[in-house]
Design a protein that fits this description.
heterodimer; A: 363 residues; alpha+beta; 7-stranded mixed sheet; 5-stranded mixed sheet; 8 helices; 20 strands; globular; B: 81 residues; mainly alpha; 4 helices
């Protein structure tokens, strides 16, 4: 028998509020099953269990604010449900069920102590909106530590502890975009690629040339990671961002990586990220091309040791075979931890990314 | 498929992409991407949701035509099966 504790949800999140349990005492679970939903400043996160067993006593109830490491439930790895009578779990969890709640409304409800189950939503499809929560809330109380605060804490820590170095290179994306557009023709929309998928796959594969850029810094040393769990920086419309992982990105076929990217963005913006997606990234990619940004000098997200940035794809005059042509070019950048790698290794990563994007059919 | 059905499907697709947005106050003539702060992934998700709702497959070459709510409605009406 062991206690399942609140997992870490990234370097900048040290607590969450339990919203609902997805299991009850006696339920059998396996590793990776979602057992609870926890509200954080970055939205509702599905909490996964790390071990197989049978749920025993639930040690927290909806509404409880839980620090990382707080006990959530007892998991019994031995007994079948009928053999072990579990103590009463306390008040039954109030599931909001399939009622749609916007992330900003959920966050506001948590801050203002509004019971979402009692609200009737006025948004599309009956979704509960911010206005619905504001209408039900009493006078505003001092806000809980918001997303801005947690991002500030993480980024301040990063700049204080990580000696960053910065590199950049230009990448001619002509071949990659032509290949992608040809491939997309005649394909239904759910099978089309976007340039971001190619950039992510190229980055994940390029780590072979620079493994010192993929892993974490903990307890005074670098811990390399064999798989590349690629964190994807996703902005949130209500402000802030999350950077959940596409696990094993280097080994995913391009189509599957694209499907995972689409799914990740959808869940990041609508609620439903999984705890392992927040705790597992070994390298992050940030793409600000949509905003017209040319060059991204990212801040490394601790405990990772690097962050790759991509700017906008712009038509530029470019020298090809001794002649000036118009080509779609973007600037790829790297911010890396000088405790772990030097510019030589960082340069090798960017060179590998550039090379891989010249052979898109091999991504 | 009536215009009203198209408009309802479009708003429903936008609600999936931007669930926190106040869709009731959208300016039909103003660019959607600015009003709702949509990026290229949001656009793809929107096109996918429209495809699922209306069965209309929007080719990539036509994405620039999906500018405002009015433009989207006109475009989809022109592509009605």
């Amino acid at each position: 028998m062991g206690e399942f504790r609140m997992p870490a949800l990234g370097a900048d999140m040290d607590y969450g509020t339990l919203v609902e349990w997805k299991v009850k005492p006696g339920d059998r679970v396996k590793r990776g099953d979602i057992v609870a939903v926890v509200e954080t400043v970055k939205g509702a996160i599905d909490i996964e269990v790390f071990e197989a067993g049978v749920i025993g006593q639930l040690l927290a109830k909806p509404g409880d604010q839980l620090a990382v490491g707080a006990p959530l439930a007892v998991i019994d790895a031995e007994a079948a449900p009928a053999a072990r009578p579990a103590p009463a779990p306390g008040p039954a969890p109030r599931a909001v069920g399939r009622q749609r709640v916007s992330p900003v409304a959920r966050k506001l409800a948590a801050e203002r102590g509004v019971d979402l189950a009692q609200l009737k939503g006025t948004g599309p499809g009956g979704a509960i909106t911010r206005a619905d929560v504001e209408g039900a809330a009493g006078p505003a109380t001092p806000a809980a530590r918001g997303m801005r605060d947690v991002i500030a804490a993480a980024m301040t820590r990063s700049k204080r502890e990580i000696p960053h170095y910065y590199l950049s290179t230009h990448v001619d994306l002509g071949r990659a975009l032509d290949w992608m557009q040809t491939r997309n023709q005649g394909r239904p929309v759910n099978e089309r690629l976007v340039p971001a998928a190619l950039l992510l796959k190229a980055t994940a594969l390029a780590i072979r040339a620079a493994p010192e850029l993929n892993g974490t810094w903990k307890d005074g040393e670098f811990h390399p990671s064999e798989p590349v769990h690629l964190g994807v920086a996703i902005s949130l419309r209500q402000g802030g961002l999350v950077a959940p992982a596409i696990h094993g990105a280097a080994k995913l076929p391009l189509d599957e990586l694209m499907a995972r990217l689409l799914d990740l963005v959808s869940r990041a913006r609508s609620g439903g990220l999984r705890s392992s997606e927040l705790s597992d990234p070994t390298l992050t990619v940030t793409n600000l091309g949509d905003l017209g940004v040319d060059l991204v000098l990212g801040v490394i997200y601790p405990p990772q040791v690097a962050i790759v940035g991509f700017g906008r794809i712009a038509r530029r005059p470019w020298v090809v075979a001794g002649r000036i042509e118009e080509r779609p070019v973007l600037t790829a950048s790297l911010s890396a931890d000088h405790r772990v790698s030097d510019g030589h290794r960082g340069g090798q990563l960017l060179s590998a990314i550039e090379r891989l994007l010249q052979e898109p059919e091999r991504l | 498929m009536t215009r009203a059905e198209i408009d309802k499907a479009v708003l429903s697709a936008l609600a999936k992409v931007a669930p926190e947005a106040d869709l009731g106050n959208l300016d039909r003539q103003a660019p959607l991407r600015e009003q709702l702060d949509l990026d290229s992934m949001d656009l793809l998700r929107f096109v996918l949701a429209v495809h699922q709702a209306l069965g209309i497959d929007i080719p990539e070459a036509d994405y620039p035509r999906l500018d405002s709510l009015a433009a989207v409605s006109d475009y989809l009406a022109s592509r009605r099966p």
